[in-house]
Amino acid sequence: RPPRSTLFPYTTLFRSGDAAGEVEANWAQVTAGPWLAETLKALRSQDGLEAIDPGKALKGTLRPYQQVGMRWLYLLAKLGLGACLADDMGLGKTIQVLSLLLVLKKQNLKKQEQGKPSLLVAPASLLANWAAELERFAPSLKVMIAHTSVANGKDLKNMPAEALTDVDVVITSYGSLLRLPWLTETSWRLAVLDEAQTIKNPSSKQTRATKQLKAGSRFALTGTPVENRLGD
Question: Is the pTM of this model over 0.90?
Answer without folding.
Answer: no
